[in-house]
Amino acid sequence: MKNSTIKVDYLARVEGEGSLYVKIKNNKVVDAKFGIFEPPRFFEAFLRGRKFTEAPDITARICGICPMAYQTSAVLAMENICGVKVEGQLRELRRLIYCGEWIESHILHVYMLHAPDFLGYQDAIQIAKDHPELVKNALRLKKIGNEIISVVGGREIHPINVKVGGFYKVPSKKQLLGLVEELKWALDASIETVKFMAKLNFPDLEQDYEYVSLRHPDEYPIFDGRLVSNKGLDIAVDEYDKYFAEEHVKHSNALQGVMKERNNYFVGPLARYNLCFDKLSTSAKQVARAVKLDKGTNNPFKSIIVRSIESVYAVEESLRIIKNYEMPEKPSIEVVPRAGIGYGCSEAPRGICVHRYKIDDNGNILDAKIVPPTSQNQKTIESDLRQLVSRNIRLSDAKLTWLCEQAVRNYDPCISCATHFLKLNIERE
Amino acid sequence: MSNKAPSPRSLAPIIIIGIGNEFRGDDGAGLVAAELLKAENIAGVEIKQESGEGAILMECWQGYHTAIILDAARSGANPGTIHRYEIQQQPLPRSLFNSCSSHAFSLVEAIEMGKLLNKLPRRLIVYGIEGKFFGMRLGLSPEIQEAIHNLIRQIKNELSSSVS
Questions:
Q1: What CATH number corresponds to the domain at position A356?
Q2: Class of domain B11-159
Q3: Residue B83 three-state SS
Q4: What is the complex's ipTM, to 2 decimals?
Q5: Which of A39, A125, A169 has its CB closest to that of B116?
Q6: Total domain count for chain A?
Q7: In this complex, do A13 and B105 lie within 8 Å of one another by their Cβ atoms?
Q8: B104 touches chain A (CB under 8 A)
Q9: Is the full-model pTM beyond 0.80?
Q10: H or E segment and range at residue B144
């Protein structure tokens, strides 16, 4: 089996559709491609000519799993252009609804999409056969995330309550208190999730990654703060285009993110965790210590544990916000449009989601650029595949294919956001 | 603000859930059908529109006696063909629905898991509307539009006969 090709034409259990292609010649990996062949999304073009206030509702439709990321980055960018800063309880509510999205997205990925790889199951239905209670708890945990989004956002899939300047309507304290009991259950359940996931077997893979995330002086990053890396990057969000670029490659419909003069980088839970561990909540830090992950990790397979720890954080942060919540007098602050260019960045469950808009004095959108997390991770995914196959070249094609799919899911790629559907090919020659 | 969400048992005994992606041409057929049914104001019937993510579907039909799912299908049949599956009597063919959803944990998986975890409504009916174009586009193909009107008549008949 000196020469071989691993091809997976449709990767299962990733959001959207895409493909993997690995070529092996004389027991050496000569090519690794992560392709996305869903036609590019035309959202950036849809947005031109629309009002600045429409961007959050239009971009929310880019993804059914992480609409909050798009809505939040869009409103932040518009507020950035118009010179407005949303603070206080309105800002807290934005954090709360975003925590809801982290919970539902992370729990879906950890239990339904990624855990089957580690446990040797074809899919979550097989897990449900052997461990029905585990899956029932996972569904209950995910549901609390949806409920937060429903209560704050108006509905769970494409929330309709978020606007530039705040919200159309804010929830009462009583409404939020209605979530507390289930969140308390969720805190224990998410801690148990971390302990369960930490016992899985993790394939060896470590690289000298450049992690990029937001970093905020007082809180674990969701939005606001500076873009930083473990290799010295420390910039304001509106300097993004000076340091980052998107490249078109032939095998993918999604542009691939690169750092100028530095190449690929890594966004998402592992980046946030390694760069901002000190900002996690008490229970999240405690359980991280209990599973010996408090020093961080460079093994992307352990992202399943990190996602679980971030779920603990999101639950605990939700409880904190609800406890301190006082219903604001007004659901939003006024935002008067003015001509300009502005940036918004937030930490989608999969990593930074960057929006840039140009609007005129009447608030018409003249230009839009949206950089989803998955497009930024594409090059790192390819580099992981190259490493992984090189280290495990003696495995059968079936085992290698399994391992490659598992490795792609470390990044929880949301290919429909990156533009966008996934297929795996290992070719040996 | 939807903060109503009490126990679904206090709601209508029947839920109709339209699923799909309106930005992918005929994949939005189930959503459009649900929208039109909503305008009919049928007593005792709750109507929802969802993306089709499996875990959420399992929550949606929780507590209802009957759930009717409306989704786009892609089997190679003539565009506008209406497929109908009574889940308690026949399994849902994966090949028909899987290809339209960008979600890996989707309708077929939700039904399988619902069976295992005892989380299915007493009666579950899936209607598949055979689509033609699943590329990037807002709006349905004309033959799908027409098929949806027939589907709505069929569902209304079905509902009135099950009530009587």
A1: 1.10.645.10
A2: alpha beta
A3: strand
A4: 0.75
A5: A125
A6: 1
A7: yes
A8: yes
A9: yes
A10: helix B142-163
